[in-house]
């Protein structure tokens, strides 16, 4: 009986170890497949290096990105995350400048940028919700319903890009202070990630429409 008990424990240990190894292999395979798909999909994005860097990072953290829908969803999520982080940074900068009684022009420019980024956060959030409506609707959105939802996403993301670039333009020239340079860099990154998201969403929308016999406007 003791021998059988030891044998059973050993067999159970081997099975558990094999299962754990299989899971790790599956995860690595999934990440590798996602990374290859992201690399191929980002090549024609406006900012391909940034596109691959952001999305492959999500894949390494366990997000599966192997379809046009998953790619568009991940890209919009990245753009929203960048917008939220930059908006929060701007809010903190505004508070610090308010305590120091800054120059009126600088303070107002930063406040305007904060408002624009706050709008961007809302617009990117809405675009993600609208993307879900395309696929979660039963039956799936087609015809006018699909093009209405598609137009909403493209409008919101495009507006986020426009607002971000308007913010950047409020700090002209290369010779700027550290805070202004940081703001410009962060806000420009928002515009770039949103631009990539717009491209990947449009790519997804084109394939979605083609698969259902719809012609893109």
TrEMBL record:
Entries under InterPro entries matching the protein: Invertase/methylesterase_inhib (IPR035513), Pectinesterase_inhib_dom (IPR006501), PME_Inhibitor (IPR051955)
Domain Pectinesterase inhibitor, chain residue ranges per copy: 33-200
Protein's UniProt keywords contain Signal: yes
Pfam families noted in UniProt: PMEI (PF04043)
Gene3D superfamilies: Invertase/pectin methylesterase inhibitor family protein (1.20.140.40)
SMART domains: PMEI
Superkingdom of origin: Eukaryota
UniProt record similarity statement: Belongs to the PMEI family.
Protein name in UniProt: Pectinesterase inhibitor domain-containing protein
Lineage, broadest ranks: Eukaryota, Viridiplantae, Streptophyta, Embryophyta, Tracheophyta
């Amino acid at each position: 009986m003791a021998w059988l008990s030891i044998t059973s424990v050993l067999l159970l240990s081997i099975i558990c170890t094999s299962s754990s190894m299989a899971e790790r292999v599956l995860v690595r395979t999934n990440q590798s497949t996602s990374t290859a798909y992201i690399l191929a999909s980002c090549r024609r994005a406006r900012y391909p290096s940034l596109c691959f860097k952001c999305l492959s990072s999500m894949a390494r953290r366990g997000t599966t990105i192997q379809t046009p829908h998953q790619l568009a969803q991940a890209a919009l999520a990245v753009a929203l995350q960048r917008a939220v982080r930059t908006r929060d940074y701007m809010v903190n900068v505004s508070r610090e400048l308010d305590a120091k009684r800054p120059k009126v022009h600088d303070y107002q420019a930063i406040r305007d940028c904060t408002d624009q980024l706050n709008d961007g956060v809302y617009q990117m959030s809405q675009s993600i919700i609208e993307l879900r409506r395309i696929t979660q609707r039963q039956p799936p959105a087609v015809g006018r319903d699909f093009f209405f939802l598609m137009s909403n996403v493209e409008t919101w993301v495009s507006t986020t890009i426009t607002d971000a670039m308007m913010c950047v333009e409020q700090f002209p020239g290369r010779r700027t202070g550290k805070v202004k340079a940081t703001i410009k860099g962060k806000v420009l990154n928002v515009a770039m990630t949103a631009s990539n998201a717009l491209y990947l969403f449009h790519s997804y929308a084109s394939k979605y429409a083609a698969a259902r016999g719809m012609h893109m406007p």
